[in-house]
Amino acid sequence: MTMSKRADWKKFKQNKAKGSLWQQFKDSVTLRPILHKWLPVRPRKAKVCECGSVSYKTLSALTVKQLNVIQAIAEACVSLEHDRDHIREEAIEQLDAKDNTIKLLTKRLEVMRHVN
């Protein structure tokens, strides 16, 4: 039974589609600081008992770290959305101001044409 679990684990490792978070987001400006904060070093290798199962303490520590990373990523996403909305509002205000200036200048030009 132990051999089949180890064989299953090897198959899982071989069929793993994605790399680590460090590999996936190595160029991300937003996620890199989060990874440095919550995962500054590579995680320790999981302690496997004789039966082939991972210990409760290892799973608990891994779960807490994963939840911290998820929370930090969610906060970063909310911050980016807020920044994007703020930039959008400023851009709309500037475009409205330009439209008003164009309309004003068009009216002045029409007045100047009628005067001459």
Commentary on this structure:
The protein has helices at residues 2-14, 21-24, 31-38, 56-115. It is an all-alpha fold and 116 residues long. The chain has one domain. Helix 3 (31-38) runs antiparallel to helix 4 (56-115).
The tally of domains stands at 1
Strand content: under 5%
Percentage of residues assigned to helices: over 70%
Give the overall shape, derived from the CA principal axes. Answer: rod-shaped
SSE ordering:
HHHH
SSE class: mainly alpha
- Low-confidence stretches are none
How many β-strand runs?
Answer: 0
Core attributes:
116 residues; mainly alpha; 4 helices
In short:
With 116 residues, the protein is mainly α. It is built from 4 helices and no strands.
Helix/strand layout:
Blueprint: H1 2-14, H2 21-24, H3 31-38, H4 56-115
Helix pairs in contact: 3-4
